[in-house]
Each structure stands twice: as structure tokens, then as C-alpha cells.
Amino acid sequence: MIRIPVPHPEPDKYTQPYWDGLKAGRLLLPRCCNCGHVQMPMGPCCAECLAEDFAWEAMSGRGTVWAYVVYHHAFHPAFADRLPYNVALVELVEGPRLLSNVVGIAADVVRTGMQLQAVFEPEGDATLLRFRPAGASEEKP
Ligand code: ZN
After folding, report:
1. Are residues 73 and 136 in the same domain?
2. Mean pLDDT to the nearest integer, 117-131
3. How far is the CA of 15 from the centre of ligand 1 (A)?
4. How far is the CA of 122 from the centre of ligand 1 (A)?
């Protein structure tokens, strides 16, 4: 059986510090030097005030499930052996919301409002940001 690789992120000048941070086990996001807004997704200017100066800052890694879906069908063949899996919109305590997976539990146990902690999972050449329930062991079931 031919194994199809999972699509990998393609860092650019706006996202390279984010990916480097994940590889080092840190969740770094850009904070606007003018208004303090934490920018996610990253871009050339602040979504709140249009300033162009950012400082990359370590986030706590704590967040909450804002919304989720559990996939029972692989819409990309690389994910066929992962079914079922969840995709969650996670709201960080610092404010930004980002898409990720909640791991360390059965995929369909995820619920809105669940308190989470970031985990950094190597996958191929990249390290991906995922979350586990806060207070849970880092061991996978
Ligand atoms: Zn700003």
C-alpha cells in the first residue's frame, strides 16, 4: 500500500517564527507593537490598527474549545488511517482562535468549553500545534 504523506505547512516571511517556535516547543504569535493586538493569522499589518511592527511573544498554550467537528470520512487520503479525528477551533486565553486537533482522548469526546493545553507534535519535517485536555496526561490512549 502506498502511503500518502500529510500535507505540510509552507512557512513564509510572515509565519516562519511561528513554525520555528513550534519546533522549539513554544507557541509564538505576533503582538502588535502599537495596539497590543495578538495577530492570528499572521499578515503584513495589524488587523486592528494597520500598524506593521510586531513582536513575537510566547503564548501560554492554554485555550478552550470554541467549536469542533469530528471527521468520519477522509477528505484527503493521507488522513484515512486517522479516522475518526476531530478538528477544533481553539480560543487561546490571549484571544486568538486557531484550528487544531484535540488529542490524547477519543476523537468524539471533544466538547465546546473543554479546557486545553498546547502540545507540540513532530510530523515529518514540521512540528504541529495540537491540544490535549488540561490536566490530562501527555500519554496517548
Ligand atoms: Zn495594532
Report:
1. yes
2. 94
3. 17
4. 32
